# Entry
Amino acid sequence: MFIVVGTFPEGYSQTENKASIKVEVNPNLELFAVIYILAFNGSEPFIIAPKDYINDVLTYFAPYKEHEAVKYI
# Structure
């Protein structure tokens, strides 16, 4: 039988951690991603988003496919 007995360094314990994590989506990056997907019709190898997301973007934002920002890319 092998028993391991250990101690934690001072200040390290199994008490409740009150730290919080905030997850956000940068709207500037999201806008750029949508424009990029529209500009390349979702087929550029640099686009690493899931296919379902790409298809949703192409469908939802189809009316903006000819927008100046999309053509600029």
Q: What stands out?
A: The chain has a mean pLDDT of 85. Residues 27-72 form one domain.
